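Hey Z.,

So I finally got round to the adenosine-5'-diphosphate thing we talked about over coffee. Here's the setup:
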Amino acid sequence: MASATLDRFCQKVCQIIQSEGTACFTLGAADNRLYLQSFVDLSTKTTLEPGPQEDIDNNTELTQAVVEAIEAERSIILDEPLHLSGIELGGPVMVVPVIWEREAVEPEEEPAKHPVGILTLWGKRGGLTFDDEDQQLAGVLAQQAAALLVEEHLEEFEDIQTAFAAVPVGLMLIDSDGNIAVANAAAGEVLQVNTLQGSNLRQVDSQGQLQKLISQLQPGTQTQATGAFVSPLGETYATSVQLTHEGQSILAFTRSPFSTAAEELVGQVAHELRTPLTVIQGNLQTIQAIMGEEVTKEDLQIADEFIETALIQSSRMFRLISETLNISRIHAGKEIELDITEFDLIEALDQILTELADRLAGHQLVRQTPATLTMQGDRDKVISILDNYLKNAAKYSNPGTTITVSIQDQGDEVVIAVRDEGIGIPPEDIHRIGKEPGFRTSASKEQAGGIGLGMVYVRRVTEAHGGRMEIESKLGEGSVFRSILPKYQPSSRVPTEELESI
Ligand code: ADP
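And the result:
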């Protein structure tokens, strides 16, 4: 679970509290062990591999301090050094409980508090001891740590949800006269009928959508058919029907790929938004805590850095929200609207690479770009193209492999390309990517978190600019995704200064 985000977080903690080192542990609920997640020691540069450490029940200095800190819900300071996996953490040592507060569901309910881990800080620089202000700051930072740790756990939950979404929801067995012999409760919900069994299809399928589907079946020649069914509640289901040897039809409803994907999108967006929001909130709290009575020049410098990251993350949030709104526009059959300006594509690339730094940290990133490249287009949407290509390249390839992002100036056209050395795409699937909402290759389904909408959006955005999308891939070797965009937009799309000033 160790992540580059946690490592960076621990480095920041050292910087803010002026400690020689910081480590972050989670608390194994099942085995009562401390699991090291991240370890940063600035003075000795020692490293420790993440993994299981002390058992809380073993009475060591560390576990005693941990138990006391968690029970008292406040940090504990030890003047003596501590030992961890044979390494001495020089005194004084501060042990800070990391407590995650789950929001109350009912109005009068108290928010539930779960100890999820601890932060350990050691060696105050300048030979000093940790004071009240340090303890207060560490408390704020521990809240950030809680959000980071819980965030990682949430990803596991989401995998499970994705798996459930793929289960067909409704099943019916219908005889040759249209009588419903068997139906499950989910089918009843789809059709909005309490008891389906014993009814005739004519009674429950007033628009004739299912009857039309079944009428396509011919014994011996066509025993299967698929179509869409719009339920009385206006939801779309993918419907398949199969003819049995006895002349009965088995009807199965699944949520249509777009509806399923759109529903998952809500979950994914909420999840994606949580990361920038956590950073923004945490940074603001930290700035507030730093701006105590005496503000030093160094405090201002740190605050400035925190503001900068908060601004980057807030622009990411705006883009993710507009991407979601645009996907729902596509779903509703509307065109994407572009907000064309002139901008430097290389600056835009720098911005997205900063935003995605954590996700790309495990890969070798190679950049092949000119120093500047001015183009006309919708800057945010062009960033979304890069965002989606880069996220996929990282998601569908192993850490340590190379991701190459290149931007080429070809006169009237600009080529944006992202190459990876990942799982690749079977040749027969390439043409479906970006065209069929919800489509995912079978290899990619092992990867959590995919819903098959990003490439649909990228293709639409590319084409709305008058460009084209190209995919080259070899199964098991890697892929290249390209958007070839015109450098200039028809003049009617570009706002001129005169027009703007009217
Ligand atoms: P998602 O990644 O959320 O499933 P996308 O629309 O971004 O959705 O991609 C659609 C599908 O295309 C993915 O599920 C995957 O099967 C395939 N795909 C996209 N990018 C890559 C890549 N870089 N390598 C291999 N397969 C990819």
